[in-house]
UniProtKB/TrEMBL annotation:
<feature type="transmembrane region" description="Helical">
    <location>
        <begin position="281"/>
        <end position="302"/>
    </location>
</feature>
<feature type="domain" description="ABC transmembrane type-1">
    <location>
        <begin position="98"/>
        <end position="299"/>
    </location>
</feature>
<dbReference type="InterPro" id="IPR050045">
    <property type="entry name" value="Opp2B"/>
</dbReference>
<dbReference type="GO" id="GO:0015099">
    <property type="term" value="F:nickel cation transmembrane transporter activity"/>
</dbReference>
<keyword id="KW-0921">Nickel transport</keyword>
<protein>
    <recommendedName>
        <fullName>Nickel import system permease protein NikB</fullName>
    </recommendedName>
</protein>
<feature type="transmembrane region" description="Helical">
    <location>
        <begin position="102"/>
        <end position="125"/>
    </location>
</feature>
<keyword id="KW-0813">Transport</keyword>
<dbReference type="InterPro" id="IPR035906">
    <property type="entry name" value="MetI-like_sf"/>
</dbReference>
<comment type="subunit">
    <text>The complex is composed of two ATP-binding proteins (NikD and NikE), two transmembrane proteins (NikB and NikC) and a solute-binding protein (NikA).</text>
</comment>
<dbReference type="Pfam" id="PF00528">
    <property type="entry name" value="BPD_transp_1"/>
</dbReference>
<dbReference type="GO" id="GO:0071916">
    <property type="term" value="F:dipeptide transmembrane transporter activity"/>
</dbReference>
<feature type="transmembrane region" description="Helical">
    <location>
        <begin position="9"/>
        <end position="29"/>
    </location>
</feature>
<keyword id="KW-1133">Transmembrane helix</keyword>
<keyword id="KW-0533">Nickel</keyword>
<feature type="transmembrane region" description="Helical">
    <location>
        <begin position="172"/>
        <end position="191"/>
    </location>
</feature>
<dbReference type="InterPro" id="IPR014156">
    <property type="entry name" value="Nickel_NikB"/>
</dbReference>
Length: 314
């Protein structure tokens, strides 16, 4: 297992370098001049002399390969530069806003798991029953409704009409309920359908038939054999969505005025805050890579059929 983990970590390095290269290329191919963007955000009158001074200060007058190497060195030191808008270190701003995003991401993930696992499992073992039809209806609704519309509906009914939860902001657990539900519903729809289909497939496997012929209790078969293997596709989907949630759910954070990383990124786009945009892209890539690594390791532990050499089923 140690060899497999080492290989997966080594495979991350070229992927991350490619992400840095693409980010670096997009910034330099963009028609937005970082020096002009800085002067505009700082409300400083742009002149040729000031532009030349800022380009030299940002290192933009150096050869591209030198700029790229310098950017890699700074990234390894968690130095993403200074925000044009706040004039503060970008990493300091990110670490200030990231706890709110992590709180929202964990809340939605936990809610999605608590609902989708029992619902998808019961829908799979009780095909065409009432709970199966309910799971299909919920999945169809969750996959169809846009997040921003769901958020506004929840605000209208539970905040404006019933006055049960706050409309916006962060603070108590009540502030977390509506945005977590908004984020969790599409995940519930996805995970429920994945788990249901995987349970139905697992019930047809020979090892389930053999376990029944050996007289093993049905609850043991369902828990130890069926659910353990059937949950694997759901974990894959969880890993793919975890990176997305941790980098900030932009629409939901905007709807609920949640002071997280996604909202910070939107403000950076509107203000052409290049260092923040660069930090967001690289951090998103890193979180997606790390999430997929964790998911691979969890799946390898759950399903022994996964090869430790290449992550393929034997």
């Amino acid at each position: 297992m140690g060899t497999y983990i080492l290989k997966r970590i080594m495979a991350i390095i070229p992927i991350f370098l490619l992400a840095t290269l693409l980010t670096f290329g997009m910034i330099h191919l963009s028609p937005v001049d970082p020096a002009e963007a800085y002067l505009s955000a700082a409300h400083i009158q742009s002149t040729d002399e000031i532009l030349a001074q800022k380009r030299h200060e940002f290192g933009l007058d150096q050869p591209l390969h030198v700029q790229y190497v310098n950017s890699i060195i700074k990234i390894c030191q968690f130095d993403f530069g200074i925000s044009y808008l706040s004039n503060k270190p970008v990493w300091e701003e990110v670490t200030y806003r990231m706890p709110a995003t992590i709180q929202l991401a964990l809340g939605s993930i936990i809610l999605a798991i608590l609902v989708s696992v029992p619902l998808g499992f019961l829908a799979g073992i009780k095909k065409n029953s009432g709970i199966d039809h309910f799971s299909r209806l919920l999945s169809f609704f969750g996959a169809s409704i846009p997040s921003f519309w769901l958020g506004y509906l929840l605000i209208f009914f539970f905040s404006v009409k019933l006055d049960l939860f706050p409309v916006e902001g962060i603070g108590t657990w009540k502030h977390l309920v509506l945005p977590s539900v908004t984020l969790a519903l599409p995940l519930i729809a996805l995970y429920t359908r994945l788990l249901r289909a995987s349970v139905l497939e697992s019930l047809q496997e020979p090892y389930v038939l053999f376990a029944r012929t050996r007289g093993i209790h049905e609850k043991v078969i369902m828990g130890k054999h069926v659910l353990r293997i059937a949950i694997s596709p759901m974990i894959t989907g969880l890993g793919m969505n975890l990176g997305k949630l941790l980098t900030g759910t932009i629409i939901v954070e905007a709807v609920f005025s949640w002071p997280g990383f996604g909202r910070y990124f939107i403000e950076a786009i509107f203000n052409r805050d290049v260092p923040v945009i660069q930090c967001y892209v690289l951090l998103a890539a890193g979180l997606f890579i790390f999430s997929n690594l964790i998911v691979d390791l969890i799946q390898m532990w759950i399903d022994p059929r996964i090869s430790r050499k290449g992550g393929q089923r034997q």
